[in-house]
Design goal:
BirA Bifunctional Protein, domain 2; Threonyl-tRNA Synthetase, Chain A, domain 2; single chain; globular; alpha+beta; 8-stranded mixed sheet; binds zinc ion
Length: 644
């Protein structure tokens, strides 16, 4: 028997094709069901169930639905390309987060116009509402079939399936004139999802290997609801406007020079101010939370990295150097450095927990194809910390770290989601330590009244972890903070503390970051705020703009008063029209523009404008300073003048 679960109900059926079972079970909303979930596996209506399986049905509204209909959309796109372009050879066409793509070998390079033509043909295919059929072949039959159709990539893929998985049959999906080698899952026909858009086309090597032929990758997206598609396209538009790689140089925050230091960031004075403000806040909060700050070397001996296990598991991502016949590695992580400090003295249970933090710059090699501005760099600074504690202290320590994360994310207006990853199959350490530590993590999250999702079996082999995903102002999510428990490093480095029983014990190590990487977090902030930073981190907090050359002396006096008051001020005394200077300051997203003319000089005021365009009129200079200082010290996200 097979159990079907739908809408909180359970039905027992004889094993058969899912489509038939749904019909037989008389599931009323059957027409809206497009597949099912067996554990983590997603299957479509063509799936033939096995005795004893429990299948949770998936409808168009289910979170798993996009992975089904976007996959069919990739086939529809390939079918359209096949109809329009002779000699198209198809490679792979998977779904990705928010969309799908297909890698295709074509005799011509596609452009925007081609994408429009393909979209039009896709609409025809959707209108034709072609039923999909699933069938199987032996690998040899499939190879012959694709050879005959001049599809060499498909031939290679089948050969791989035989070589790597020793399969005895492969599945294919056919929709009239288009047939693809495919595992599925798919919709039963091409007419069920209509809301899609092709986004771009770019080059991609076959199998991601630059020695292979460059294919063309067409990206697209699809949603069940038109409103969801519109919202997503709007978000993409916003994201493009906010792209930190564009805003960074425009606001003179940083630059990238791939000829000099690929994947590494040059922080300009403005960007350095933003970064130092984040560091200052971080330092202040960590001191309050009982952390001690350390600084460890950038270059440490290769043998240390052998002992830590990085040599075995991470060598390909590390940079090395050599002097006086000694081999060194540039640190890709801060943990071994902190362990050296821990081991340099003996510890009693009374010293624990020991919370050691460092703004530690690490270097990790990433392929040039994947480096991406501040988001994925080869050198970055982690706001790292390692907590050495007893197993009994885990829960309290987690509560402390989560509180620190919560406070930090609230400061930037980031809502966030929490995910707990538990013991994987290849775990090291006793069942007992996994049991106590995982329940300590759960208990901490429950004590804090946190909603969290459990990712069963997704933890690292050396310990469970908690991830935090922030949601930015345009709805994208970013993984930033993690809290990772580690039973392995204390073993490898033989870390101990003396317990109250006078015996030696193993401490637990907690790795954690809050921003994640300063570089990446700054990239996220640039896009989150579209460059308009809150005043406390803005590189220039106020700009003084004399109306004419006659007002420069007064403007200069104002500028000096501001500087003395600790406000980052800039004097724009160029002989430009005031309108031009205001527009420029607005483009630089400076929070306050202080216009100084004859009238203001006479009344010892400034005419205050916000970057949003709001004109606050004349304000007494003392009053302005008082208010902006209050805004800065409270680290407010909004202008104090706009808060009612
Ligand atoms: Zn497919
Ligand atoms: Zn670590």
């Amino acid at each position: 028997m097979v159990i079907l679960r739908f809408d909180g109900e359970e039905k027992e059926c004889e094993p058969a094709q899912l489509r038939e079972m749904i019909e037989k079970a008389g599931i009323s909303k059957g027409s809206n069901v497009i597949g099912g979930k067996i554990g983590k596996k997603i299957v479509d209506l063509f799936y033939t169930a096995q005795d004893g399986e429990e299948i949770e049905l998936i409808t168009f509204e289910s979170p798993e639905a996009p992975s089904i209909y976007r996959h069919t959309m990739a086939h529809i796109m390939a079918q359209a390309v096949q109809r329009l372009y002779k000699g198209a050879k198809f490679a792979i066409g998977p779904t990705i987060e928010n969309g799908f793509y297909y890698d295709i070998d074509l005799p011509q390079t596609l452009n925007e116009e081609d994408l429009k033509r393909i979209e039009k043909e896709m609409k025809n295919i959707i209108k034709e509402n072609i039923p999909l059929e699933r069938f199987e072949m032996t690998p040899q039959e499939a190879i012959n079939y694709f050879k005959e159709k001049d599809q060499p990539y498909k031939v290679e893929l089948v050969e791989d399936l035989v070589k790597n998985l020793n399969v005895e049959s492969v599945s294919l999906y056919r929709q009239k004139d288009f047939t693809d080698l495919c595992r599925g899952p798919h919709l039963p026909s091409t007419g069920l999802v209509k809301n899609f858009k092709l986004l771009s086309v770019s080059g991609a090597y076959w199998r991601g290997d630059e020695h292979n032929k460059m294919l063309q990758r067409i990206y697209g997206t699809a949603f069940y609801k038109k409103s969801d598609l519109d919202e997503y396209l709007h978000m993409l538009e916003e994201a493009e406007k906010r792209d930190h790689r564009k805003l960074g140089p425009q606001l003179d925050l940083f630059s990238l020079h791939s000829d000099v230091a690929p994947g590494m960031v040059f922080f300009h004075p403005n960007g350095t101010i933003v970064r130092r403000e984040l560091e200052n806040y971080w330092r202040q909060e960590h001191r309050k939370a009982g952390y001690v700050e350390v600084i460890t070397p950038m270059v440490m001996s290769e043998s240390l990295w052998r002992q830590s296990g990085h040599w075995d598991h991470y060598r390909d991502n590390m940079y090395f150097t050599e002097k006086e016949d000694q081999h060194f590695a540039i640190k890709p992580m801060n943990c071994p450095g902190h362990i050296i400090i821990y081991k340099s003295s003996s510890h009693s249970y009374r010293d624990l927990p020991l919370r050691m933090c460092e703004l530690g710059t690490v270097h990790r090699y990433e392929r040039s194809g994947v480096v991406h501005g501040l988001f994925r760099a080869r050198a970055f600074t982690q706001d790292d910390a390692h907590i050495f504690c007893t197993p009994e202290q885990i829960e309290d320590e987690i509560v402390g770290v989560v509180n620190l994360i919560d406070k930090t994310y609230k400061l930037f207006g980031f809502p966030y989601k929490v995910e707990l990853s538990t013991k994987p199959d290849d775990a090291m350490g006793s069942d007992e330590i996994w049991e106590t530590s995982t329940s300590a993590l759960k208990k901490a999250l429950e004590d804090l009244n946190m909603d969290y999702q459990i990712n069963e079996g997704d933890g690292a082999f050396y310990g469970p972890k908690i991830d935090f995903h922030v949601r930015d102002s345009i709805g994208r999510t970013w993984q930033c903070a993690t809290i990772q428990l580690d039973f392995l490093m204390p073993e490898r480095f033989d870390l101990t503390y003396t317990g109250s029983d006078n015996a030696e014990h193993r401490p637990v190590m907690i790795h954690r970051v809050i921003y994640g990487s300063l570089e990446r977090f700054i990239g996220i902030l640039i896009e989150h705020y579209a460059g308009a930073f809150p005043t406390w981190i803005a590189p220039v907090q106020a700009i003084v703009l004399p109306i004419s050359d006659k007002n420069v002396a007064y403007a200069k006096k104002i500028h000096e008063i501001l500087e003395k008051a600790g406000i980052r001020s800039f004097l724009d005394d160029r002989s430009q029209k005031i309108g031009y200077k205001i527009r420029e300051a607005q483009l630089k997203k400076i929070p306050y523009m202080l216009v100084a003319g004859k009238k203001e000089e006479e009344s010892n005021t400034v005419a205050v404008r916000l970057r949003s365009g709001t004109d606050l009129g004349a304000i007494d200079i003392k009053e302005f300073i008082e208010k902006i200082k209050a805004e800065i010290s409270s680290k407010s996200q909004n202008s104090i003048f706009e808060v009612k």
